[in-house]
Structures are given as C-alpha cells and as structure tokens.
Design brief:
Layout (H helix, E strand, L loop, with lengths): L16 H25 L1 E3 L4 H8 L4 E5 L4 H7 L5 E6 L2 H12 L3 E5 L3 H15 L7 E5 L13 H9 L2 E15 L6 E14 L3 E2 L8 H15 L4
Parallel strand pairs: 1-7, 2-5, 2-6, 3-4, 3-5
Antiparallel strand pairs: 6-7, 6-8
Length: about 230
C-alpha cells in the first residue's frame, strides 16, 4: 500500500494538479509565517505538554486529541515535537500540510472515505513497529466536517489498536476571535492574547470497546468533558 506524504505530488481531479500543488505549498508557507508571527505576541502557557513528552519518553505511543476549532494555536505551541498529522488529499488539505511542515510536523494526505481510514491505520501500525521512534499523532476528534464537539470514534479505535495513550488537549485563549459562520466556530487567538494548553490524564482505550454501546458512550463523554474542561 502506498500512502502519500505531504511531499508527494498527488493526482487530484483538479486540472493542472502540479500548479495547484505549488499554490497550496506557497499558501502553506504564508499561513505558517503569520501563525508564527501571531504566536510571538501571545502570553502562552504550554507547560502541560510535558505530560505528553513523559509518555513518549517511556516508549508509549500517544494520540493527542483536540477540538477542530483549536488547531491554529496548536500549530505554534506544540512545534518541535514529532507529531504525525493526517489531512485530506484536497487543496485545503495540502495547505494545512504545508503549514504542518513549517512547524516540523509529519503530515500525510489521505483520500476520502474508508480508504482514508485504512491508509491512516496502515501508517500508524507501521510507525509503532519502530521501537526507537516515538509515535505522537494529533487528531481533531470532531473533524474534518463536524458536527461541532461531537467525539468521533476513529481516534478511539486507533488508540485501542495501537495500545496508545489517548490524551485530550484543551486550548483556552483570551481574547479570541471565534468565526461563528464556520461549523467549528474556528478560534484565532488575537495578538497579545493569553493562550493556555491543558492536557488531560492519559486514557487507556480497551480493545473491543466498540462492541459495548455503554462503554462507547462512557468513553465519548469522558473525552468530551475533558476537552471542555469538565473532567
């Protein structure tokens, strides 16, 4: 199976694919520069990411989950960590992949539907076979298209299969611009905002949890509450 990294040129249904890829790469660099510039002004507290670093140092794979609305702040504040990020094989996805590269992340472009899920699973299982390489995956757990703050099961299934620690990351910022016309109410911390990351305790997702509806709902609620600062 071949899974495209963000450095690969993919054949999309768009005309002039190479031209679109170059434009996406350029926009990714421009957006990353503005995120970096904006983050320089923030009064940020990302010390809680040490909890993730401890898991990685112990050789434990980590799946870090967060709301789709908060990923802009995470681009800058988690920079320098070996984060694997999955995004769609689309123009927008390629722009996001370009931003990820500028912050040192490892983006993969996925096709839509079940094939994308299978490709993601293949990549992660391959990564877990390398005992000398820490595995850290970042997933917007209500993405890519919502509903807003609905915990989807893909990350939970992957954590179970990988025996990975599932770690919710909550981002709070003041003042912030929330784009309420978007499905996720995408949040952009304003210049000089106070931005804080909180990381919940590592959660173990048992294999076979998907066969128990009560356990599914309990796990969903636990993740939802921790991402909203209620757990």
């Amino acid at each position: 199976m071949t899974v495209k990294t963000a450095n690969d040129v993919t054949e999309d249904t768009q005309p002039c694919s190479v031209g679109w890829d170059r434009l996406a790469a350029l926009l990714g660099r421009i957006c990353a520069f503005f995120v970096w510039l904006l983050a320089l002004s923030w009064r940020s507290d990302a010390d809680a990411l040490a909890k993730i670093d401890e898991q990685l140092a112990a050789g434990k794979p980590v799946i870090a989950v967060f709301w789709h609305s908060s990923y802009l702040a995470l681009f800058a504040l988690a920079a320098g960590r070996p984060v694997t990020v999955f995004t769609s094989r689309s123009f927008r996805g390629k722009v996001i992949a370009g931003i990820c590269r500028r912050f040192g992340y490892d983006p993969y472009l996925l096709p839509p539907g079940r094939q994308g899920y299978h490709d993601m699973r293949h990549v992660l299982l391959e990564k877990t076979r390398d005992a000398n390489r820490p595995v850290l995956v970042g997933i917007a757990i209500d993405g890519p298209l919502g509903p807003r703050h609905a915990v989807k099961l893909g990350a939970l299934h992957m954590a179970a299969r990988m025996a990975a620690a599932l770690m919710p990351i909550r981002v709070t910022s003041r003042p912030v611009w929330a784009i309420t016309s978007r499905w996720d109410h995408f949040k952009i911390p304003l210049p000089f905002a106070k931005v804080r990351l909180d990381v919940g305790p590592a959660m173990a997702v048992p294999n076979g949890f998907g066969r128990n509806p009560a356990q599914i709902e309990a796990l969903r609620k636990q993740v939802h509450d921790r991402l909203n600062g209620q757990g």
